[in-house]
Amino acid sequence: MRLQKHLSRNVGNKTYYKHVIVVPSKLVEELNWKDEQELKGSIKNKKLVIEED
Questions:
Q1: pTM as predicted
Q2: Within the chain, what is the greatest distance between any pair of CA atoms?
Protein backbone atom coordinates (compact mmCIF):
# COMPACT_ATOMS: atom_id res chain seq x y z
CA MET A 1 0.00 0.00 0.00
CA ARG A 2 1.06 3.55 -0.54
CA LEU A 3 0.05 6.92 0.88
CA GLN A 4 -0.09 9.65 -1.76
CA LYS A 5 -0.50 13.40 -1.32
CA HIS A 6 -2.57 15.16 -4.00
CA LEU A 7 -3.17 18.84 -4.54
CA SER A 8 -6.81 19.53 -3.78
CA ARG A 9 -7.07 23.26 -4.49
CA ASN A 10 -5.46 26.66 -4.10
CA VAL A 11 -7.44 29.43 -2.42
CA GLY A 12 -5.62 32.73 -2.38
CA ASN A 13 -2.19 32.06 -0.91
CA LYS A 14 -3.32 28.83 0.80
CA THR A 15 -2.77 25.36 -0.72
CA TYR A 16 -4.95 22.43 0.35
CA TYR A 17 -4.01 18.78 -0.07
CA LYS A 18 -5.85 15.47 0.27
CA HIS A 19 -4.26 12.13 1.02
CA VAL A 20 -5.10 8.90 -0.79
CA ILE A 21 -4.25 5.35 0.28
CA VAL A 22 -3.75 3.02 -2.67
CA VAL A 23 -5.09 -0.45 -1.83
CA PRO A 24 -3.96 -3.37 -4.01
CA SER A 25 -6.70 -4.91 -6.19
CA LYS A 26 -6.19 -8.31 -4.57
CA LEU A 27 -7.16 -6.93 -1.15
CA VAL A 28 -10.15 -5.04 -2.58
CA GLU A 29 -11.40 -8.25 -4.22
CA GLU A 30 -10.87 -10.29 -1.01
CA LEU A 31 -12.94 -7.75 0.91
CA ASN A 32 -15.62 -7.64 -1.82
CA TRP A 33 -15.39 -3.85 -1.90
CA LYS A 34 -16.94 -2.08 -4.89
CA ASP A 35 -15.90 1.11 -6.70
CA GLU A 36 -17.28 4.25 -5.07
CA GLN A 37 -18.30 2.26 -1.95
CA GLU A 38 -18.54 4.36 1.22
CA LEU A 39 -15.98 3.38 3.86
CA LYS A 40 -15.31 4.75 7.31
CA GLY A 41 -12.01 5.07 9.09
CA SER A 42 -11.05 5.15 12.73
CA ILE A 43 -7.93 4.84 14.83
CA LYS A 44 -7.66 1.98 17.33
CA ASN A 45 -4.47 1.30 19.26
CA LYS A 46 -2.55 3.70 16.97
CA LYS A 47 -3.67 1.79 13.85
CA LEU A 48 -5.90 2.94 11.00
CA VAL A 49 -8.98 0.74 10.71
CA ILE A 50 -11.05 0.99 7.50
CA GLU A 51 -14.51 -0.58 7.54
CA GLU A 52 -17.61 -0.66 5.36
CA ASP A 53 -19.98 2.14 6.26
A1: 0.70
A2: 43
